[in-house]
Amino acid sequence: SPGDHLPSMRELAKDLRVSLITTKRAYEDLEKDGFVTTIRGKGTYVKEQDNAILKEKQFIVIEDLTKSLVKEAKTIGMPLEELNEILALIYEEENE
């Protein structure tokens, strides 16, 4: 939740049994992507998220996944119409 305090990098590394460098990179990535903020001497906190920014990030993920899907479909020679039919069926199944 926004405002929640994250464990220190050292605590998390110890709890997950991973290197401190790994947790440091993860925290840096989270901060770079706007999910957390770090206050020197106080710690790292979850940031309030703007719904428009979250939606844009979700669209980017969907676009990347779709590109991979299209590439795989082209690899096996699947026509666009067939791919569209499969997508439509799966989309409708998820609505049920």
TrEMBL record:
GO terms for molecular function: DNA binding; DNA-binding transcription factor activity. Gene3D superfamilies: Winged helix-like DNA-binding domain superfamily/Winged helix DNA-binding domain. The keyword DNA-binding applies. Residues 1-49 form the HTH gntR-type domain. Keywords: DNA-binding, Transcription, Transcription regulation. The keyword Transcription applies. PANTHER family: GNTR-FAMILY TRANSCRIPTIONAL REGULATOR, HTH-TYPE TRANSCRIPTIONAL REPRESSOR YTRA. This is GntR family transcriptional regulator. It comes from Staphylococcus nepalensis.
